[in-house]
């Protein structure tokens, strides 16, 4: 029970931190007289959305749309249960890496359902774009997840952390780490890979969402981004290992660093069109990830 | 006891999802009813301690049904999907055929002389599964894996042909 509470508290705090950092770094935030005051803007946005009146489109499929909206934060939280975010993970499953992958893929359904349900063209285009993006990022993502599991000889997140006692997997398998970071951006449709929510389609998937619906969707996106960043820590950055601070403190600190990098990338990198990302993903990321897996396999055979 | 309750709940939900596919009047809803049915089957695998296979079924079914959704909607008579539609044509014939197939499968379940269990469950089914796939079945799996990957790559290459307005940079011939 205490691990659930710690997990929820750390996850929410980090997700809010990401939203606050984005508010500070966003063009409106950077242009404000006191940019750091903008850190409270997500709170004001929450209050605004909670009191906003719902806008309706003609003939929406409300059931499917609500199912999609609610699925997004739920799968983010479920994916996070195997991540040791606040010390112990909520559940250190024997197939933890596969569990994370399966829950994160449910985000595909969430986005497409939300896009479909509104009966409006821009959300629909956004939903289909995310499916195409999913095809582009999922295979490199799976190979990137496989590398640490192969290096540790286990799918259990706890054992992957234990295998990094001497040297972090980010050092021994840097390509897999880089591919993972790209796929983290893609799975949270964030920054350069945020075309499903692109400005060219009036905001894409959540374009017609208003009030609490929009709040749950956007909060779910920040939760997904946070969980994606948090998973990089046990997989590649040695989990809770570190000097001075105890293990329960190092995990959130490292997660915050990865998260800050991802949030910062949004303002620094241009949005990539989904079809070009597909070409990049399949022609560059998959071969690179496979070569990395070959390298790790040789390392494992030679080392064991 | 709890396992039996969970099994029956999942079984009933799986069948209900399957029925819903033919009852709902939108292709998107039919897709997700089918997905819900598959997910119940995946969760049922967790009840017999096959964690890897159960989670894998969830993973693959979600991905597969999302790609299926694109095609199911694309090939509909009314692709918008908001006008009422039905998955059933030739009502009587369809009912007779599906009823007969269902009866045949159920009869098969009850008439098969199921073998009694020998030995004990493996300590780590995931590891045993991997050893089985990568041990005696290695050659088959490697060939099948390569064939599937080649199929996927060629399908994407055929589908993702670039259009005439699609170019990199400012030069007219930039590809």
UniProtKB/TrEMBL annotation, chain B:
Membrane topology per record: Multi-pass membrane protein
The protein's name in its UniProt record: NADH-quinone oxidoreductase subunit J
Catalysed reactions, as listed in the record: a quinone + NADH + 5 H(+)(in) = a quinol + NAD(+) + 4 H(+)(out)
GO CC list: plasma membrane
Domain of life: Bacteria
Taxonomic placement: Bacteria, Bacillati, Actinomycetota, Actinomycetes, Streptosporangiales
Regions that span the bilayer: 6-24, 31-48, 54-75, 95-116, 136-160
UniProt record similarity statement: Belongs to the complex I subunit 6 family.
EC annotation from Swiss-Prot or TrEMBL: 7.1.1.-
Cell location: Cell membrane
GO function terms (MF aspect): NADH dehydrogenase (ubiquinone) activity; quinone binding
Role, per record: NDH-1 shuttles electrons from NADH, via FMN and iron-sulfur (Fe-S) centers, to quinones in the respiratory chain. Couples the redox reaction to proton translocation (for every two electrons transferred, four hydrogen ions are translocated across the cytoplasmic membrane), and thus conserves the redox energy in a proton gradient.
Cited InterPro entries: NADH_UbQ/plastoQ_OxRdtase_su6, Nuo/plastoQ_OxRdtase_6_NuoJ
Enzyme class at the top of the EC tree: translocase
Keyword annotations from UniProtKB, A to Z: Cell membrane, Membrane, NAD, Quinone, Transmembrane, Transmembrane helix
């Amino acid at each position: 029970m205490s691990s659930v509470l710690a997990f929820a508290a750390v996850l929410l705090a980090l997700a809010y931190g990401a939203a606050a950092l984005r508010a500070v770094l966003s063009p409106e935030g950077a242009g404000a007289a006191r940019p750091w005051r903008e850190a409270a803007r997500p709170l004001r946005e929450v209050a605004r959305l909670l009191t906003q009146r719902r806008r309706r489109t003609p003939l929406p499929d409300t059931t499917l749309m609500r199912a999609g909206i609610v699925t997004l934060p739920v799968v983010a939280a479920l994916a996070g249960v195997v991540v040791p975010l606040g010390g112990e993970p909520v559940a250190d499953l024997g197939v933890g890496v596969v569990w994370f992958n399966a829950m994160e893929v449910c985000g595909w359904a969430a986005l497409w359902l939300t896009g479909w349900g509104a009966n409006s063209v821009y959300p629909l285009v956004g939903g289909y774009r995310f499916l195409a993006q999913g095809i582009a990022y999922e295979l490199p993502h799976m190979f990137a997840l496989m590398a640490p599991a192969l290096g540790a000889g286990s799918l259990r997140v706890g054992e992957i952390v234990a295998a990094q006692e001497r040297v972090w997997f980010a050092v021994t398998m840097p390509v897999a780490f880089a591919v993972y970071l790209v796929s983290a951006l893609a799975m949270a449709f964030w920054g350069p890979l945020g075309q499903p929510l692109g400005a060219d389609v009036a905001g894409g998937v959540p374009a017609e969402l208003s009030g609490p619906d929009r709040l749950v969707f956007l909060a779910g996106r920040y939760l997904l981004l946070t969980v994606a960043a948090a998973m990089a820590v046990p997989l590649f950055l040695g989990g809770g290992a570190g000097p001075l601070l105890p293990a329960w403190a190092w995990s959130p600190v490292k997660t915050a660093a990865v998260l800050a990098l991802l949030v910062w990338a949004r303002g620094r990198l241009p949005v990539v069109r989904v079809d070009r990302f597909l070409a990049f993903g399949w022609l560059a990321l998959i071969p690179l990830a496979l070569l990395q897996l070959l390298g790790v396999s040789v390392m494992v055979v030679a080392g064991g | 006891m709890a396992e039996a309750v969970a099994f029956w709940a999942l079984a009933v939900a799986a069948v209900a999802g399957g029925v819903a596919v033919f009852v709902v009047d939108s292709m998107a809803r039919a897709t997700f009813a089918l997905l819900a049915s598959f997910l119940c089957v995946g969760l049922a695998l967790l009840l017999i301690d096959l964690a890897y296979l159960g989670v894998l079924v969830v993973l693959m079914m979600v991905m597969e049904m999302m790609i299926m959704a694109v095609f199911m909607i694309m090939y509909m008579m009314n692709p918008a999907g908001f006008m009422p539609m039905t998955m059933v044509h030739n009502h009587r014939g369809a009912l007779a055929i599906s009823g007969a197939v269902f009866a045949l499968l159920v009869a098969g379940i009850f008439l098969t002389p199921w073998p009694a269990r020998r030995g004990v469950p493996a300590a780590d089914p995931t590891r045993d599964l991997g050893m089985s796939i990568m041990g005696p079945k290695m050659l088959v799996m490697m060939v099948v894996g390569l064939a599937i990957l080649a199929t996927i790559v060629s399908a994407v290459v055929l589908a993702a042909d670039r259009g005439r307005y699609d170019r990199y940079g400012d030069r007219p011939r930039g590809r």
